[in-house]
Amino acid sequence: MSTSETEYLKGKASEEYKHGWYTDIESEKAPRGLSEDIVRYISKRKDEPEWLTEWRLKAYRYFKQLIDSGHYPDWAHLDYERPDFENMRYFAAPNGQAQYESLDDVPDEILETFERLGIPLEEQKALTGVAVDAVMDSVSVATTFKEKLREKGVIFKSFGEAAKDHPELVRQHLGSVVPYTDNLYAALNSAVFSDGSFVYVPEGVTCPMELSTYFRINEAGTGQFERTLIVTEPGAYVSYLEGCTAPMRKENQLHAAVVELVAHEDSEIKYSTIQNWYPGDEDGNGGIYNLVTKRGICKGDNSKISWTQLETGSAVTQKYPSVILAGDNSVGEFYSVAFTKGHQQADTGTKMQHIGKNTKSTIISKGISADVADNSYRGLVKVSANADGARNFSQCDSMLLGPDCGAHTYPYIESNNPTAQIEHEATTSKVGDDQMFYCHQRGLGEEEALKLIVNGFCQEVLQELPMEFAVEAKELLDIELEGSVG
Amino acid sequence: MALLEIKNLHVGVEDEDIKILNGVDLTLDTGDLHAIMGPNGSGKSTLAAVLAGREEYEVLDGEILYDGENLLELEPEERAEAGVFLAFQYPVELPGVSMTNFLKEAVNSVREARGQDELGSADFLQYMRERADMMGLNADLTKRSVNEGFSGGEKKRNEIFQLAMLEPKLAILDETDSGLDIDALKNVADGVNKLRSEDRGFLIITHYQRILDYIVPDHVHVMLDGKIVRTGDKDLALELEEHGYDWVREEAAAAA
Questions:
Q1: With contact defined as beta carbons under 8 Å apart, do A417 and A384 qualify?
Q2: At a CB cut-off of 8 Å and minimum separation 6, what does A84 contact?
Q3: A444 lies in a domain?
Q4: Residue A109 maps to a domain
Q5: Lowest mean pLDDT, pick from A134-148, B122-136, B158-172, B182-196
Q6: Domain limits at A183?
Q7: ipTM for the complex shown
């Protein structure tokens, strides 16, 4: 790597995070710490039915049991201080309101917050073809295009509303893919989850627009624990995208979400993430701990679940969006770009569990590290004894931008069926001097050349994003790569 | 007018005690086409790399004037912007980077340096189509990633296509003819001939006389052991073809 390139890359960690501002708005917060009372408080604040309160309490007790017996998940290639669960707040409602009846009730400060993030909540200003659920701290503040979706029978609302309006649907599916016993953070989320989105697409319906949830952490010292549940009935299709940002703060903040997807026969769920939580400053202070459990089940035959993620933010990211391929001929896909710079760390990947016959999974993972960042791919492809004709293709590419960063690949393969076909390819590359020189010779400067090469490296994944967001994703990557050229 | 003046150029490899060029002198006028011939390891490609600004070579002595300015002070991208183009001997693959994106960035970067307006997407695509037609390039190539999965011949033709897109003042072709079959060679030569103009100089580096059957040079130089040992017109290439490099080597030794 040339000297000028190294200098250029050094400059990148100090770049400013663009969404680091804070909205000054009154907020009702739960007292610090976690107890059965806090769990009851959250449930009561959200006006929840009894069964849900009980479910939360069971999850809390399981969480406490794990913590008390010292079961902290520390097997990932990550180095960070454990969150202080006793010193955190588990609920914050901007403006003291846990729910808004209509957009007219939402205070201007909140509308402006989302407007500033490029997410106008008034429908006439919104991106055509995209319905948005906006979540600030623990509360969903608005969901757009509800009427239009209702015509098709599509339910898209905040989790809190859904629990009240469609208790049978929520009760049937909540925890069915990620039980609260799954892991420590799934237990924690189940106990204290605040808001998130619920999506239900009825039989034979192709959801007429992209659905999107935008998460914003605003309050200090607060964790964000949203929960998303998406169910597609036979023959249905939905494409869903989540985006997220947070203010810059000195201390770390915890984000522990759970996402569950249920695809019935012949249905398809496409789930995309653009994760841009605050990554911490250049010395590695502050930033979000993004510890998330995401899993989908292809329950019916010929169903399909596709995860696409662009992970550029957070101080620490640990997530493995996975697919249980239960139905015959079902398809699971995982497309990921994880970009870490400064002191960021990411341990991400997927699990593809082949259970049904002739199931197929594809994994394309691109990890990019710069500065002193560490980036790991961890993935499991598991083929059950009865999963005849299972096929998997995995490709894990890592790119190192500089001499002090790290890339690691931990692929696990567990095949119990002799008919399975599993392919794994992995590469690690540096941005070559030859590639840079070739670009320079065509008149491109350091930064332009690097953007072009990195974007090219991620192309296979970025092209999987819905068109409305592909441009945003490319711009986000460009911003990540911007900086003072040395 | 002299577009390029190389005076007593001595070049070594950075951090190593190896000398490759031992006092090269060459003057190239705008509108002229010079060919540099020589055996493997004589320093031809190093000269091309130094002209384009590759970092791993160290200029130990001498100077290079381009348009009367000190070329060695410019960064590689500044040289490109000033109109220096190198057709690579081994064109580099840029996986996932589309030819269209790459060339749009490149063309607009060079245009900006020349004080021209950036080309918008529609204008750029039209310009690219025109140039592809002119060069007889299969338009499908412009839809693929830069050089990725291109055959050897396609890569070389793509270099000449980029030359046509960027319209440089000085075009350096580093063994563009090597590894080409006769049809591809003719195609490349045809492209170069179309691009010859009063406002452009060419420096063509080659092992073989073959390409000079199709591209007629104004001057031919023979390089040996990092020095130009003989200069002549197009007939020199034919003599070389007939007698081989040993003939020049012996002559050079006798003269020394």
A1: yes
A2: none
A3: no
A4: yes
A5: A134-148
A6: 20-433
A7: 0.95
H/E stretch holding A450: helix A446-462
CA nearest to A445 within chain B: B77
A114-128, A220-234, A425-439, B206-220: range with highest mean pLDDT: B206-220
A33-51 residue pLDDT tens = 889 988 998 888 888 889 9
Please identify which residue in the block is written with the tokens 């948005």. Answer: A132
Q: How far is the C-alpha of B23 from the C-alpha of B15, rounded, in Å?
A: 20
**Half-sphere exposure at residue A3, Cβ-oriented, CA atoms within 13 angstroms:** 4
Beta-carbon count within 10 A of A442 CB: 27
Q: Which residues of A touch B99 (CB under 8 A)?
A: none
B109–A448 C-beta distance less than 8 A: yes
Share of chain A above pLDDT 70, in %: 80
Which residues does B57 contact at the CB level (< 8 Å), separation at least 6?
B11, B12, B13, B14, B20, B46, B49, B50
Residues of chain A with Cβ-Cβ distance to B166 below 8 Å are 442-443
Q: Which residue of B51, B55, B58, B108 to mutate against A (max A Cβ within 10 Å)?
A: B55
Q: Is the pLDDT of residue A131 over 60?
A: yes
Task: Identify the structural domains of chain B with CATH numbers, from first to last.
Answer: 4-255 (3.40.50.300)
CA distances (Å), A485 to each of A179, A281, A481, B75, in order?
A: 48, 19, 10, 14
Cβ contact A238:A210 at 8 Å: no
DSSP string, A295-358: EEEE-STT-EEEEEEEE---SEEEE--EEEE-STT-EEEEEEEEEE-TT-EEEEEEEEEE-STT
Does residue A445 belong to any structural domain of this protein?
Answer: no
Q: Which residue of A has its CA nearest to B53?
A: A441
- For A168-191, letters b (16+ CB in 10 Å) and e give ebbeebbbebbebebbbbbbbbbb
Which pLDDT score, from 0 to 100, does residue A121 have? 64
- With 80 as the cut, is the pLDDT of residue A16 above it? no
Which candidate from B52, B102, B166 shows the least CB-CB separation from A452? B102
pTM, to two decimals: 0.82
Alpha carbons B201 and A73: distance in angstroms, whole number:
66
Which stretches within chain B are classed as H helix?
Answer: 44-52, 76-81, 99-113, 121-134, 152-166, 182-195, 234-243, 245-255
Closest CB from A2, A443, A452 relative to B97: A452
* Burial state string for A392-419 with b = 16 or more CB within 10 A and e = fewer than 16: bebebbbbbbbeebbbebebeeebeeee
Amino acid in position A48: E
Residues in contact with A430: Cβ distance below 8 Å, sequence separation at least 6, in sequence order: A1, A399, A400, A401
Structural domain includes residue A15: no
Task: Give the distance from residue B4's alpha carbon to the nearest chain A alpha carbon, in angstroms.
Answer: 18
Task: Work out whether strand A322-325 and strand A304-311 pair parallel, antiparallel, or are unpaired.
Answer: unpaired
CB B160 within 8 Å of CB B191: yes
| Terminal C-alpha separation, chain A | 14
Cross-strand partners of B228: B223
Domain count, chain A: 1
